[in-house]
Design brief:
8 strands; globular; binds 2-phosphoglycolic acid
Length: 249
Amino acid sequence: MKQFLYIANWKMNMPVMQACSFYRGAAEDIESIAAQDNVKLIICPSFAAISPLKMVLNENSHVHVGAQDCSAYAKGPFTGEVDAVSLQKIGCTYCIVGHHERKKWHGETEHDSAQKIEQLQVNDITPIICIGETHQEYRNKNTYNVLCTQLATIFSSITVSTPSLVIAYEPIWAIGTGLTPPVDTLSEIFTVLREYTESHIPNSTIHYVYGGSVQANTSALLKAVAGIDGFLIGNASTQWKTLRKIITD
Ligand code: PGA
């Protein structure tokens, strides 16, 4: 059965104690839902909360744990950075790269994403690659151009063969705003993304997810869009009740 990915991007909203109590407060329910054949639940806490969360997860938990970022380098004088080797050692199997907030606050580019992806792939961590356009680009009907240019830069430097990837389309104007593109527009965008990606990196295992204001009252509609294999969820993923509704609706 095809799995739908639910990627919880907790950003810096869930300090360690809160991250652990999210799980502890509903462990049985979380596990029974995460164990469903058509569900893959991936939680991405802050760096500091990764190990504590891993420690409270049940033995044989069905919850996957990911990071929100990683260094573009394997080792060296990079104060404050976290390497992919360590992420792998502490049990991360996924890692977000190139999130808009990294680009906005830290000036990251697609070249940085490409380097990070390489680090992740050599450590068997699946990258969740974020791409997206501004509202102006969307209004000017420039979305395809922007997305394909972002992917072109990333794909030109992926060297590891048959990579497993998640591509997350997150319109910048939809993140945290309550706005989402109309479903027919989304379906066209995902068709273009698939065609472009499959022609540039064939033989890869790729999941295409949507992110940006996925909420309990919009998720059923978004889930029905052809071509979407999952969601990257920010705010709505920090409360189990809300996330549960998104998964089960
Ligand atoms: P949001 O965030 O769901 O709160 O809009 C999504 C994201 O930034 O990944």
